[in-house]
Amino acid sequence: MHMFRAEHRISNTEYRITKEERRSRQLLTSKFDIQCSVFDIRFLWLRPCAALCILLLGWLAPLALSGAEALAGAPPAPRPGERAAPRVCLSLSALAREARACRAAGRALPADLANLGGISALEGLVADGENADVILVGRQVPGRPTLTLDDLVVNLRNVWGSQGPPCCSLQPQPEDVRRMQALLPAADQPIQTDEQVQRLLDGLRRTWGGQQVIVGGVPRNSRHAYVMVYADYHMKRLSLGLVTLPWLPSPLDRTLRSMVQAVRAGQPPPASLPAITRFWFHIGQGSPTFRESAGVLWIDTCSVVVLTERQLAAADGRLQAAGGDNPAATSFAADFTAAYARAAEAVPVYADLENLFRLSALLRALALKNANALATADLNFYLRECPYLRETPMPDSLPGLVNAKEARTTVGANQYTFMPIVCGGVAMDIALDPRRFTADSAGELAALRAAVVRDRPARSAVSWTLHAP
Hints:
By secondary structure, the protein is an alpha+beta fold.
């Protein structure tokens, strides 16, 4: 059994937790049905001073991933002047035969097969009944992480085993929430000094205990689980301003900017918003959609959006939904949604997560439309025989995140300080609708199927390049 080292290598991309991150108590979090971060923003009136101070506190909260939609609608398009990424085919029957032979001989599976022929943007599949086979088809996009055999096995077992959608969450302990609430000053007891701000920040850092890591639908130690966790963790760090993408300001930065603008415009400071704002990745409305032809299923759209909602902490420390929204959170979610493809280019784990959504979507579509096809493609090997190539123990709990920011402004004799508090969480659901399958009337998929069969160099070939269409 191959085990990840402390520096986990996932597919062809490495995700590291640095000593600095451990020191600042910033570890992973996530969930599969979609992930996203959740944060709570509370404004506290402080004495007139020369600063706008933002205090951010985050926890890794529940994610629930259910299903089948990808984080981008289609594989990355080539830039002007670039050739389209090559299209590759992968035979599930031949892969099962080769993997079984390697296992019997005590040999390692060749890397190109362990990475599913290098598919990094899954597009569809062909059911080749004549050869008792199912063939995956996708692009080999340079620099983009690939799917793996473990991903295929995990998702086949999830879909055919009716295990419920993949999911993960990091649950804040209710007692920690209660302690956090107790640390916040009352509205009639404003913070008066920078020392009080620092004491509050230090107290919040001490308050957060371990966040329980919960994984569902997929093995806890699987690569799939780790991709969910790392993607969610990065989202939470983005929402807290602990890491940055230049074109995606965090909700905290947006809040700070709007507060400065309001003060400079002579407007009164904002009212207190004692709520937690939750962000999560979710399937876009009306997605996924597919085209189909005899023996072919093709992903048309598989979009993922970022959603947000406000939450409140009940007296017992448990979180519950609250009405309304937060403008900074809403704009962050909308901008992240619009720029997800760009984010996936900048942050490989988002591309990894997209790959998993597309794979889950396609396998669910196959189960809905042509479940018998896999029965002829040695499905039993994937469901019962195939061992995982890599497994890594998942921590039982992870610490929360705390951060602070400050910006100074002076307007006449009035100077203000505001402190938003940010917390995190993620959830995702995916459902297939038979009405979202469209027959291919132009004959494009029939031509593609013919090319897949024609270009296969031999029946024993595991993977091959598709030259046309």
